[in-house]
Amino acid sequence: MNERTPGTVLLRGGTVYSPADPFATAMVVDGGTVAWIGSEGAADGFADSVDEVVRLDGALVTPAFTDAHVHTTATGLALTGLDLSAARDLDDALARVTAYAAAHPGHRVLLGHGWDASRWPESRTPTRAELDAATGGRPLYLTRADMHSAVVTTAMLDLVPGVEALPGHHPEGPLTRDAHHAVRRAAQDAIAPGQRRDAQHAALRHAASLGIGSLHECAGPQISGEDDLTALLRLAAEQPGPRVLAYWAEAAVPGADGVLDRVRDLGALGAAGDLFADGALGSHTACLHQPYADADHTGSAYLTAGQIAWHVGACTEAGLQAGFHAIGDAAITAVIAGVRAAAERLGIDRVRAARHRVEHAEMLDPDAIAAFADLGLVASVQPAFDATWGGTDGMYAARLGTERARTLNPYAAMLKAGVPLALGSDSPVTPLDPWGTVRAAAFHRTLQHRVSVRAAFTAHTRGGWRAVRRDDAGVLVPGAPADYAVWRAGELVVQAPDERVANWSTDPRSGTPGLPDLTPGEPLPRCVRTVVGGLTIFEGPNE
């Protein structure tokens, strides 16, 4: 067997997380497929007929994670470049910009990400003059943590003639809307092919080291460009690594000819992902029914219900997935109205079968949750958003007020209603961190929105595959793809979000498989091997 031809492997002496056998300690993989799961005693019968025996020494084997919303190149650039997420204050951020500019004299455009002025004592963004001074007058594009606004230098604006006339341009403050999209395109165009490849490779390698076997790349003309997506898919096909499942965020609306042909030509699964119905709360661009608590407006709407209906109808008829980025309650209302209109024209069963997606889906009331369930909409959600910005003193409370903020990300109600959940990070908005994501869902800052660790884990493994219309993957059972990860973890438990929930499932006699204890403060599991399609794509150092 070589690195591109998987053989037969017996894993034994650990714990295999599988609905096929809750007490399994061994697994046989034949090529790219799970062949058998069972007990240690039965594993003896396979030991002499396989190409490799992996002794787990008590390790946990689980399905590999699927991150259902990633920007791979931007993630790699944050890993290898200027990341301001750890900046303590404005002065620290400017010092990091200065140091990065000095260390990269050959870059045509300096790229950075992750600032969040709401976390700084000054509570303000750097001015254009401050950035000009920090970079020595070079082009700089620096996105906010949510990627829906950016601060730039004067030299960066000079690369985009006419930007001053575009909606969202501000003489000194962050750029939003069309002005931001135009400057982002110019910044992306300035990335050299080698720099892009290095960033993509770094992101894929990092994902593999975290037990992530699949990424949903959310590309689009306002995000990263066709060359970026095709380069990423080519790289993923050339070498063992996480699977990359792509979406292209372009609207199939009247006058936009050839969109769905372009989606297919690019190798995307649908015209979905970050097809913006609105923006983000942090940038005051999420579209709300009522004004922000800290601003006298309701944000920005980028698509009408009519445009959404047209797009969903066209995608459904073409056999492709549609999908939208929608965070604010008004944007979600528009999405529901548009999908409902398409269902009335084409038939609700046909629309449900398409498994159209909504990314983020943060501000859902009970009526919206019921509509998602009725229309079969997949909610692609990011629990780390709540961990990062939730709570009574977080950014959500500042933007919306405490009462409205408390309603955000109602995962328990969504699962109870039957809304399919797929978990992700929106990296680099929040980092690739699958166990941390499961923890954030299970220990949501709002108690009534918490779900069990098991439910969150399923949404971050099998849920991601169901979101791409694959029901045979993301779970370790005979016949499933051999995408799995091996972990060093502590005690395995069955963890419910509320101690009032019946505890029968914690008894070994219940046959409920355990998962690592994700109580905040407990160490997260450490990945020692990641396998995709039977091929090892990451192996940690020997202990």
TrEMBL record:
Alphabetized CDD domains for the sequence: YtcJ_like
Residues in Amidohydrolase domain copies: 52-535
Pfam assignment, any one: Amidohydro_3
Classification via Gene3D superfamilies: 3.10.310.70, Metal-dependent hydrolases (3.20.20.140), Urease, subunit C, domain 1 (2.30.40.10)
Region (Disordered): 502-522
Superkingdom, natural source: Bacteria
Coiled-coil ranges (or none): none
Residue ranges of the TM segments: none
SUPFAM superfamilies in UniProt: Composite domain of metallo-dependent hydrolases (SSF51338), Metallo-dependent hydrolases (SSF51556)
The protein, known as: Amidohydrolase
